[in-house]
Amino acid sequence: MSQELYRIDANTKVVSTQTIPGIPYSKSPCSIAISNRFFGKREYILRAIWDQTFFRRHLSKAMFDLVFFPIQDGLLFPSVNQIITVHDLHYQHFDSSISDCRNEISRFRTKLYKYKMPHILEHSVAVVAVSESTKQDIVVSFGINPDKIHVIYNGYDEFRFHAIENTQPTLDRYVLQSGNYFLFVGSILKHKNIVRLVQAFARLETEAILVLAGACKDADYLEDIKKAAADLGILETRLRYLEYVSDDDLPFLYNGAISFVLPSLHEGFGVPIIEAMACGTPVITSNCSAMPEIAGDAALLVDPTSVESIAAAMQEILDHPQRAEVLRSAGLERAKQFRWSSSAQKLYEVFKMVSES
């Protein structure tokens, strides 16, 4: 996004705590690295204290025109005009995201978000929502004026995620065979609905396997997934958990999959949907929250609460190659609508509006 903003206006001064390839930027003197490896849940307390004190003071002294948070965070009492991004409010919909989360750090972080977000939104001059669905979530959950909220879709890396002819050399490193697996990409979290995905997979008439790729954010839920597979008689060789897969390898996994399946109960956007489509992979996703909005007519939509619905869509892809080809072509066209250049132009207009008001 920063690179595209710089292309729009080379006079834009970017200050960042991270390296941004391809554009001149200033290193923020108020960056800090705090690892939860040492601090546990205190990492979030320390980060919050740092942001709300030292970082806030630095913004005031440096006399910035505005501060933009591309992550879902912000200042409770900003010293300059603040624009924040809201990616997802699943924790507003599911009390279980707190009460059932057996990871202490994740549970604490969610509680902290629920406390902070109403105040941060109230003290922001503008809010970026990554989908119309997320915008409505913000309005309903917090009573924010909809005129204050600007819908700007996420983009994807066009140079990385595209159709690839020869995927097998990379897949060999994961002991996978192209065209012989269904793929899920995302964090291991309860609202991702992976247990139902496993239950649906168990109903298929196929020798294909199910591959899960993503960071484990809830180790206990991962155990629930493995137990569900064992109870259904799914051999470990047919359910593969790859943990985090690098962005360099992920396009090869998308390209080699029979279909990408995201039966999540809630998504604020669903970036993997677009990544999979850009790779020419047929997509199956849920018919709720932002997923129909992002997928459009280029995916099979399922009821995420119904194992039968998920299984039927997966079997349809297996049984009807022509249908899979139609989805593949439609997905490639759909992905073209989510370019960072377009998103950056819309964000730049919001910046101008705030700076000139």
Topology:
Blueprint: H1 2-8, E1 15-16, E2 26-27, H2 36-39, H3 42-62, E3 66-69, E4 81-86, H4 90-93, H5 96-99, H6 104-122, E5 126-129, H7 132-142, E6 149-151, H8 168-173, E7 181-185, H9 194-201, E8 209-213, H10 219-231, E9 239-241, H11 250-256, E10 259-262, H12 271-278, E11 283-286, H13 291-295, E12 300-302, H14 307-319, H15 321-335, H16 340-356
Parallel strand pairs: 1-2, 3-4, 4-5, 5-6, 7-8, 7-10, 8-9, 10-11, 11-12
Structure notes:
Helices cover 45% and strands 13% of the residues. It folds into 2 domains: 2-155 and 339-356, Rossmann fold (3-Layer(aba) Sandwich), CATH 3.40.50; 168-335, Rossmann fold (3-Layer(aba) Sandwich), CATH 3.40.50.2000. The relative contact order is 0.12. Strand 5 (126-129), helix 7 and strand 6 form a beta-alpha-beta unit. It has helices spanning 2-8, 36-39, 42-62, 90-93, 96-99, 104-122, 132-142, 168-173, 194-201, 219-231, 250-256, 271-278, 291-295, 307-319, 321-335, 340-356; strands at residues 15-16, 26-27, 66-69, 81-86, 126-129, 149-151, 181-185, 209-213, 239-241, 259-262, 283-286, 300-302. With 357 residues, the chain is of the alpha/beta class. It contains 16 helices and 12 strands.
Q: SSE order, as H and E? A: HEEHHEEHHHEHEHEHEHEHEHEHEHHH
Helix % is 40-55%
The CATH class of the largest domain is identified as Alpha Beta
For the secondary structure, the number of strands is 12
Calculate the terminal CA-CA distance, rounded to whole Å.
Answer: 23 Å
Largest sheet: 6 strands, parallel
> Which regions have little confidence, pLDDT < 50, spanning 5+ residues?
29-40, 97-102
CATH homology-level superfamily of the largest domain? Glycogen Phosphorylase B
Average pLDDT confidence is 88
Radius of gyration: 21 Å
Per CATH, what is the topology of the largest domain?
Answer: Rossmann fold
**Structural class by helix and strand composition:** alpha/beta
Instruction: Assess the beta-strand content as a share of residues.
Output: 5-15%
